[in-house]
Amino acid sequence: MHITRIVVFPIKSLDGVEIPTTRISDGGTLAFDRMYAIVDPAGKIVNAKREPRVIRLRCQFAPDFREICIWQSGAEDKANFDLQATEPIDRWMTQYFGYEVKLQRSGTRGFPDDEEAYGPTFTSEASLQAVTEWFPGLTIASTRRRFRTNIELYAAHAFEEDMLFGAPGERRQFRAGAVSFLGHNPCQRCAVPSRDPETSGPLPLFQAQFAASRKAALPAWSNELQFNHYYRFAVNTSIPLEEAGKTISVGDPIQLGW
After folding, report:
1. Cα–Cα distance for residue pair 178/124, rounded to 1 Å
2. How many helices (H) and strands (E) does the chain have?
3. Nearest to 176 by CA among 124, 93, 254, 105
């Protein structure tokens, strides 16, 4: 296996940016990944799990991630903002959602979903293609946008990335290029992948069909004890903090063990 795509999501729950290389942050994450989050006055994150309108937002970022162009899917009007001064985009998003929100920047770690497995998620194009084939009418581009994985691998077989995790509680060591990783578990998914990434409309019976197909396709090298249910896709990881400052790039090989 080797890396074929790297994607960071500068604002949690919004569109990602494909990049050829990135460094590891001081917090053990990919630099610029989920460095901002949309929050309400109580400080709770406004994400696609609780707010379907998030899914209908489209955005593009400047190469240095200091500026953003944002718009609603299907709309012609686009707005440009400087992310170093967030009050204007806060007003735009407050108007869009219909209640007060603001953009909050994190410290060194960003806003991961899992405080233990705070590193990037891994999958493979073979796995994305397999999932796409389970749902007639889906494209691999749509599947990518539904599951929002950071690192995509070339693999000879679907779900070959399941080799990157072991038994429950185990932290499986592997390397991507020069960077050491710990594989935790297959990622438990929420309702977001069942929703169309353009309209936010749900795909009926998505979770049940996915779980049944994932169970049927589970490879021999995948530790079944990690599956209390089969609505799991991609591998959760963490990066030891001493790896900060190193870089990973498209083309880097995956090696089990350190």
Report:
1. 20
2. 4, 15
3. 254
Rounded CA-CA distance 75/155 in Å is 38
> What's the CA gap between 47 and 45, in Å, rounded?
6
Contacts of 48 (CB under 8 A, 6+ apart): 13, 54, 55, 192, 195, 200
For residue 146, what is the enclosing H or E element?
helix 140-147
* Cβ proximity of 58 and 15 under 8 Å: yes
- Does pTM top 0.85 for this prediction? yes
pLDDT of amino acid 258? 86
On whether the CB atoms of residues 119 and 164 are closer than 8 A, the answer is no
Quote the pLDDT of residue 108: 85
- Token pair 């998914």 is found at 189
Task: Give every CB contact of residue 181 below 8 A, 6+ residues apart in sequence.
Answer: 119, 164, 173, 174, 175, 237, 238, 239
pLDDT at 74: 87
Helical spans, DSSP H, in 51-86: none
Task: Using the structure block, give the residue that is written with the tokens 């233990």.
Answer: 116
Closest CA to 162 of 142, 143, 187: 187
CA-nearest of 62, 67, 11 to 36 is: 11
Q: Is the dihedral of CA 219, 189, 236, 228 positive or negative?
A: negative
Q: How far apart are CA 13 and CA 47, in angstroms?
A: 6
